[in-house]
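name: query_chain
kind: protein
chains: 1
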Amino acid sequence: MKIPLLISRLILGGVFVYASFDKILHPHEFAEVVYNYQILPDVLVNLTAILLPWLELCAGVFLILGLFLRGALFTCNVLLAVFLVALAFNLARGLDIDCGCFTASADPSSGGDMILYLLRDALFLAMGLSVFFYVLRRENPGAFAEGGAEKTSM
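structure:
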């Protein structure tokens, strides 16, 4: 079971590192992508466009190196959940936008692509949650015992 989890961790780390590069190099273009989602207030668009790629890079590097695993996995899973919700929200609103996942380009997308983005992000989130719960179980085996709580003697 450890090898598939290691591979999942390395894949997720690589995805986050790769996804961060173009956005770090082109923050203005990525700000347009963030703006196109029409979710954040205008005052948060530029801040998000600058900080989010660096957060992705750090979380991905930590996953690859196996450092701060709980925090890196938690961060990646929260980001994936937010991305998934943002995509689903815009798909439901009928907005045809580029997800901005791996590029800072604000080119228009097609609704069919958004469904593939949702499926891809759901797969990544499932991988991330699997690794996260494995790490939690390994670090604190009593927390997942029957009843959900460790027995303590007084």
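note: Residues 2-137 form one domain.
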